[in-house]
Amino acid sequence: MRRFLFLFFLLPLYCVAQSQQVVCEQGSAAATEIATSWQSLQRPTARNPLRTFYRFVYADSAYQIQLKVSIGGLDFSVTQGALFEIEPEHSETINLYNTKLQRSCKGCGSRSENENIPGVTLTFPISKYDIITLCDDYVGHVSLHLPDAIFGDNLTLRRSELFQEELVHFRHLVDHHL
């Protein structure tokens, strides 16, 4: 019984530790990929149906932000070069561009494989300079430009803080491995 109670109380701590997990993999060609776990960036509201998760990736000597995006259960497409704007509170807007055309598919925009919500996983290259800028400033607003509409909203203070914390942690890990 003691073991059961001990495990019961340790499980939440283990889960919290897993949310900060970073994956580092060495490939056969000595290429390193560093990726943070997926975090929620935006939840849908009546004004903005966009649901977004993000993670930071370093692969092939390049920095990226990946987004899992769904829009209120609708099918949609994202063009190559689609604009993702990140507006820090005290710095200039950072414009990132999607790497390829994508059409939504069931479950592609969610963290859970059990969800059947149509979505996409997008990749946006980002410069080290832009990462440093975002590490020093809170994000106030994000928006994604699609062929038929622009979706976006202000971030809550907690989501902005988490975004910055994840990015600082990611930057430290990449700098440590290089």
What would you call the structural class? alpha+beta
Total DSSP E strands = 13
Mean pLDDT: 84
Question: Which series of helices and strands comes N to C?
Answer: HEEEEEEEEEEEHEEH
Radius of gyration: 17 Å
The biggest beta sheet, please?
Answer: 7 strands, antiparallel
Characterize the structure shown.
The structure is a single chain. This protein is an alpha+beta fold. It is 26% helix and 40% strand. The chain has 3 helices and 13 strands; from the N terminus they run αβββββββββββαββα. The strands form 3 sheets. Strands 1, 2, 3, 4, 5, 10 and 11 form a 7-stranded antiparallel sheet that branches. It has a 4-stranded antiparallel sheet with strand order 8-7-12-13, covered by helices on one side. Helix 2 crosses helix 3. It is globular and about 40 Å long. The model is unreliable at 4-21 (pLDDT under 50).
